[in-house]
Amino acid sequence: MYFVCIAACPTGVAHTYMAAESLEVLGKKRGHEIKVETQGSLGAENVITEDDLARADGVILAADVAINNKERFDGMITLECSVSDPIKHGDAVFEAIEQEVANG
Predict the structure, then answer these.
(1) Does residue 47 surpass a pLDDT of 90?
(2) How far apart are CA 68 and CA 7, in angstroms?
(3) What does the alpha-carbon distance between residue 91 and residue 23 come to, in Å, rounded to a whole number?
(4) What are the φ and ψ backbone dihedral angles of 94, each rounded to 5 degrees?
(5) How far apart are CA 3 and CA 77, in angstroms?
(6) Cα separations (Å) of 80 from 6, 37, 42, 64?
(7) 5, 6, 7, 9: the active-site residue
């Protein structure tokens, strides 16, 4: 499966990048292709494109702040969680989104 993700924390520094790394590492370990956009103090990095959205099976929004351009995910299978969840409970995050995708 291909998942696009957003990671964002209130200060946009440590937890944002820790969550992004966790999503990438665990996603690949589970056999998925992953793209993580970070929204933080440096602005948006690794921005999700229209092509990414067109081929994505699902979306993981790991954020404790409002996400910029969230409407681009409207109509997609989406899992919203705290930015700390991929760090502390990464497998549970992926199990939840995998189940959502499987159930369509």
Answers:
(1) yes
(2) 11
(3) 9
(4) -70, -40
(5) 10
(6) 10, 14, 22, 10
(7) 9
CA atoms of 19 and 3, how far apart (whole Å)? 14
Q: Which residues of 15-43 are buried (b: 16+ CB within 10 A; e: fewer)?
A: bbbbbbebbbebbeeeebebbbbbbbeee
CB 61 within 8 A of CB 79: yes
In Å, how far are 20, 32, 57 from 100, measured between CA atoms? 21, 15, 10
**Could you tell me if 38 and 17 are in contact, meaning their C-beta atoms sit under 8 angstroms apart?**
yes
Does 81 participate in catalysis according to the annotation?
Answer: no
- Asked if residue 92 has pLDDT above 90, the reply is yes
Two tokens at 71? Answer: 């409407």
Q: What are phi and psi of 48, to 5 degrees?
A: -70, 130
What does pTM read for this prediction? Answer: 0.96
